Amino acid sequence: MTVPIEDYAVIGDLRTAAVVSVNGSIDWLCLPDFDSPACFAQLLGDESHGFWQLAPASGTGTARRKYREDSLVLETEFDTPTGTVRVTDFMPIRETHPQVMRLVDGVSGTVDMHMTLAVRFGYGSEIPWVTSTEGIVRLTAGPEAVALWHGVTPVGEDMHTVADFTVSEGQRFAFTLVWYPSHEDPPPPLDASYALRRTDNFWRDWAAQCTYQGPWREAVVRSLITLKALTYAPTGGIVAAATTSLPEALGGNRNWDYRYCWLRDATFTLESLLRGGYLEEAMAWRDWLLRAVAGDVGQLQIMYGPAGERRLEEWEASWLPGYEKSAPVRIGNAASGQFQLDVFGEVMSALYHSAHAEGVNSRAVWNLQLVLMDYVEARWVEPDEGIWEVRGPRRHFTYSKVMAWVAVDRAIKTLEEWPDLEGPIERWRTLRQKITDEVCARGYNEDAKAFTQYYGSDQLDASLLRIPLVGFLPASDPRVVATINAISDSLLDGGLVLRYQTHDEDTGVDGLTGREGAFLACSFWLVDCLHLIGRDEDANALFARLLALRNDLGLLSEEYDTVAHRLVGNFPQAFSHVSLVNAAYRLGQVDGTTPTPAPEPAGRLVDYANSLLPPAARRVRTRHHHRGR
Questions:
Q1: How many Å is the Cα radius of gyration of the chain?
Q2: Per-residue model confidence as pLDDT tens digits over 113-151
C-alpha cells in the first residue's frame, strides 16, 4: 500500500537526502547527490524499484518517531508484544563518501527483526550484481556501487538481500550503507557511536545559532533545519525539495522534478536565513546565485542544478508508475528554459538585501546588476510564462510586471544608499513610475475588485498577495486590501489558498488539465497579508491551521489536498518552510498584547533581520494567539 506523504521523514548529509517511512523503510534516496539517479525509488513505484526496510519481523505493533531535539537524527520506536526496539536513522555529514547509518537498539524485552535491502540503480531500473563476504555486501552496477556493512547473516532471496536477527534490551546492531565508484574499494564504515554523536552535535550546534525567540520557535527551528538539509554544501545551493514527481493531486499528471535550485526562491530564502541568524548560509546562497547567473544574461535560467548545472532536460521514467499511479514520473525540468520576468526582481532584491546584511556592496556585483537592469528595461514589456511556470501561452502576468518594478526599485535604492556606485538613476525612476502606472491601470480589474492574474483577466492569482510584501503598494492601499479580501473570499479550498483556479477537464491558463491541492506557501502569504491589513485574528487562526498540517515531525510538502486530507507535492518543500519562517517573524508576538522581545544582541545581522519586517509587523496587537502543535 502507498505510504501517505505525511508518514515520511527526511535525513541528509548536506549533499543528498533519504526519505524514510514510518514503517522503517527508506523509499527514496539519490546518490551521491540530490539530483543523481535514485537507488531506492519505491516512493514512485513499488518494492521492485528499490527500498531498504528495517522493522519487526512480526509486522505487528505500533510505531512512534521523533527527531532528536533540534537535529536531523531520526528515532523510530516499535512496540511489539515481546518488547520495544528503536531504529535510529541518520546520514553523517559527508567528508568523502555518502553514508546512511541505521542503528537497531533493544529498548526492552526481545524483538525479532527483519531487514530487506533492494538496491535498484537508475531510478529503479538497474538490478545490481551482488557479492557477499563476512560483514559486507557489495552491490554493483556499471560505474557505481554501494556496500552494506553489517553484523548479521544476510542471504539472497528473490533478488533481495534479507536478514533475520533478534535484538534484546541493551543490544545494538549497526548497519552502514555507503556509496562509492565501482572501480574503487568500498570505504570502511565509521564507528557507530562516534558517528551518531558527531552528527547529533552538528545539528544541535547549528540549530543553537538561531536568533528567533518568538512563540513558534519549535516550528521555526525545524523549518530552518529542513532548509539546511536541502542545502548542497559544496556550493551553497538550496534545492526546492528532495524528491521528484510527487503529485500535486493524487492520480494527476502535475508531477515535476524539484531537486533543483530556483532563482525565484532567492529573496524568500535569504529573508528566512537572515531572520534566523544564519548569515553564513545566506551569503553562501547569494554566492551560488552569483555563479549561477554569471555569463550572458540573455541565457539566464529560472533554475539550475545544485552546483549551477544548466542542462536540466526533462524526460519520463516510463517504468515507474508514479506515486499512487500519478504518471508520468519526470526527471529534469523543462521549465528551466522558460522566460519568467519575475526572477529578475527576485535576483535584484536578493542582491540588495545581501549587500545590506553583509555591509558591503561589491562593484563587481553591481556591474552584474547593471547588465540585469539593461535586460529588464528591454524586456519588461514582453509577455512571459510567469511565476507558476505555465505550459500554456505566454501572457502579460501582473505579478511578473510587479517583480520587474521590484528589480528597478532595488536598483534605485542601491544607488540611493551606496553613493559610490554609478547608474542611470533618473531613467530608472521614470521607468519605475511607468511600470507602476501600467500595472495599476491594466492589472487591476474594477469589476473583480482585485488585481488579477494577467492583463485583461478577471481571474484571481495568489501571487498578487506579494504586492504589499515586496513594497509595490502599501497594505493600506484600498486596491491591495480589496485584492487580499477577494483572495481570502474566493480563492480558497477548504480554508487554504489555491495558486489560481484549475480545471479537471479543460486546460486553463497553465495549459494543463486536472486539479491541484492548496499551495501552502501562498497560504502563508495570506497570513502575512491578513496581518498587515489588521485582520489579526484571521491571520493567527490561519497560521495555526497551517502549523497543524505539518506531519508529526514538523515537515511540510508543497501542497495540501483538502479533499483527501493529505499532504501532496514534493517533500519536504523548501518554499513551504521558508514561508512558514517568514510568516512567524511577521506575526511576531508572544501574546495578544505584548510584542515579541528582541533576540539576544548579535550585531548588525540581527538589526538587519529586524529591519526586514514591515512596520505593522514589528508592533501589532491581536486578540488571540495560537501556538499550533
A1: 25
A2: 999 999 999 999 999 999 999 999 999 999 999 999 999
Q: One-letter amino acid identity for 611? A: S
| Residue range 30-50: mean pLDDT, rounded | 98
- Please state the domain count of the chain: 2
Q: Which of 205, 230, 252 is the last residue of a domain?
A: 205
What's residue 501's pLDDT? 82
Average pLDDT, the chain: 90
DSSP 309: -
pLDDT digits (tens, 9 = 90+) for 402-454: 999 999 999 999 999 999 999 999 999 999 999 999 999 999 999 999 999 99
CA distance 43 to 320: 10
Q: Give the CATH number for residue 160.
A: 2.70.98
Reported confidence tier of residue 510, pLDDT bands at 50, 70, 90: low
End-to-end CA distance of the chain: 28
Confidence at residue 513, expressed as pLDDT on a 0 to 100 scale: 59
Domain termination site, one of 146, 174, 205 = 205
Backbone φ, ψ for residue 520 (5° rounding): -65, -40
Which structural domain, as residue segments, surrounds residue 70? 5-205
Is there a contact between 101 and 174 (Cβ–Cβ < 8 Å)? yes
* 8 A C-beta contact, residue 600 and residue 271: no
Longest CA–CA span in the chain (Å) reads 78
Which cell numbers in the block locate residue 57? 519481523
CA atoms within 13 A on the CB side of 438: 19
Structural domain includes residue 152 = yes
DSSP string, 118-139: E--HHHHTBPPEEEEETTEEEE
Domain identity same for 182 and 265: no
pTM for the full model?
0.91
The CATH number for 316's domain is 1.50.10.10
- pLDDT at position 199, please? 98
Cell numbers found for residue 226: 529542513
Query: Is 625 a member of any domain?
Result: no
Phi, psi (rounded to 5 degrees) for 303: -150, 160
pLDDT at 54: 97
Smallest CA-to-CA distance from 288 within 270, 306, 274, 272 is with 306
Is the four-CA dihedral 385, 388, 392, 397 of positive or negative sign? negative
Instruction: Look at 382 and 510; give whichever has higher pLDDT.
Output: 382
Average pLDDT over residues 578-595: 71
Scan for cell 543490544, then name that residue: 171
Reported as a single tens digit per residue, the pLDDT across 63-102 is 999 999 999 999 999 999 999 999 999 999 999 999 999 9
- Together in a domain, 454 and 591: yes
Same domain, 234 and 169: no
Only one residue has cell 529586524, namely: 610
The residue to which cell 499511479 is assigned: 325
SS3 222: helix
Q: Count CB atoms within 10 A of the CB of residue 168.
A: 12
197, 273, 286, 556 from 238: Cα distances, Å: 26, 12, 11, 16
Question: Grid coordinates in use for 198?
Answer: 558527531
pLDDT at 104: 98
Whether residue 623 is contained in a domain is answered as no
At residue 362, the pLDDT reads 85
Q: Are 310 and 317 in contact (CB under 8 A)?
A: no
Report how far residue 396's alpha carbon sits from residue 380's, in angstroms, rounded to the nearest whole number.
Answer: 9
CB 499 within 8 A of CB 485: no
